[in-house]
Amino acid sequence: MAAVEVHQFAQCITCHAWSADRSMIAFCPNNNEVHIYRLSQDKWEKVHVLQKHDQIVCGIDWSARSNKIVTASHDRNSYVWNQEGSEWVPTLVILRLNRAALCVQWSPKENKFAVGSGAKTVCICYYEQDNNWWVSKLIRKRHDSSVTSVAWHPNNILLATTSTDGKCRVFSTFIKGVDTRDSKAGSVSDSKFGEQIVQLDLSFSWAFGVKWSPSGNTLAYVGHNSMIYFVDDVGPSPLAQNVAFRDLPLRDVLFVSEKMVIGVGFDCNPMVFAADERGIWSFIRFLGERKSTLSGSRYSSQFSEAFGKFYGQSKYGASNDGIEPSRSRGGIHENCISCIMSLTESGSSRKTRFSTSGLDGKVVVWDLENQEDLSGYL
Fold it and tell me: Where in or outside the cell is it found (predicted)?
């Protein structure tokens, strides 16, 4: 089994994040607080409790370079926490939201962060040195429902979002004075703030977690219809695939390499998806199982050149009526896994170590390094 550490921190955890050296973890125990634990002599000790929000904290991200923590809450607020001495001091971010903030993530360069909300908007927040505060620019009138997840492209400009309107979208977040024109980014750096690069209509249900591959060439996101979608060459003529599975839906995803994705969700056990030499994605196995007990006919991958009028007409693979229903797989988590975070240093193309947290209050650390059947995909 790939799990190397299991920690029962609370009765329920909504989200978590790690410090740069992985010696501290911040998580929300399903309330309006953020608890920070430090590893000391092989034991985890509570060292800080961040108390500023009025409602459940649903998003946490810990910047690796600047050591800042950003939080987002159902109370429509976001705070940036700076460590001053032994205390964490909050700075209010002006979001201008009339609905709950649902997710948050720092950009790769950490000069801005994105907040998804129930107000059908995305806030791109950046620091104004002159006024000594964090302000936001809003991407409006694009989403038809709540924004459930955000993911930054490695170029620090493109942002992918998923929404309960079933769509995944990619926007430009270029802000004059914050970002710089980069010849390597091509035409992307010439696009205006809030400009929609592409809208992906592959899912016919709520869309949740979304992530970019380490190179930024592939985008993966999940739907509440027990499907995961992979999109290459994001732009006017993307290439789209989907993988349908008979188990419970996923909530979040993580690229561990260019050819492997880990999906987590309501089945309480991480699922491994990988691409073969042709670039066709398929389900491999549950991470809690040493070998796959499922035949390839149980899962289907549909590859389509999505362009012109055919784009968006994603086809479901053939199903097998003889497939047994979803069953408990004896995983470590006992409830829905809602968050997955990489434990590998940023910039690495291989992220063999990662952690998951769920509604059972556990944080589990996983390591794929010694998984022989998966080594070919790493």
Answer: Cytoplasm, Cytoskeleton
Contacts of residues 319-325 at CB distance under 8 Å and 24 or more positions apart, as own/partner, are: 319/244, 319/246, 323/246, 323/298, 325/246
Over residues 223-243, the mean pLDDT reads: 90
Nearest 5°: phi and psi at 259?
-115, 0
In sequence order, the 6+-apart residues with CB closer than 8 A to the CB of 70 are 59, 60, 61, 63, 78, 79, 80, 81, 93, 104, 106, 113
Q: For 271-364, where are the alpha helices, taking DSSP H only?
A: none
The model's pTM is 0.86
CA dist list (Å): 159 to 214, 252, 313, 317, 361: 14, 16, 24, 29, 30
Number of helices (H), then strands (E), belonging to the chain: the values are 0, 29
d(CA 335, CA 338): 9
Tokens standing for residue 263: 């999906």
Query: What b/e string do you get for 237-276 counting C-beta neighbours within 10 Å, with b at 16 or more?
Result: ebbbbbbbbebbbbbbbbbbbbbbbbbbbbbbbbbbbbbe
Q: How far is CA 118 from CA 55, 151, 172, 195, 265, in A?
A: 14, 17, 20, 20, 21
Count CA within 13 A, CB hemisphere, residue 26.
25
The predicted-structure confidence for 350-360, as pLDDT tens digits, reads as follows 678 999 999 99
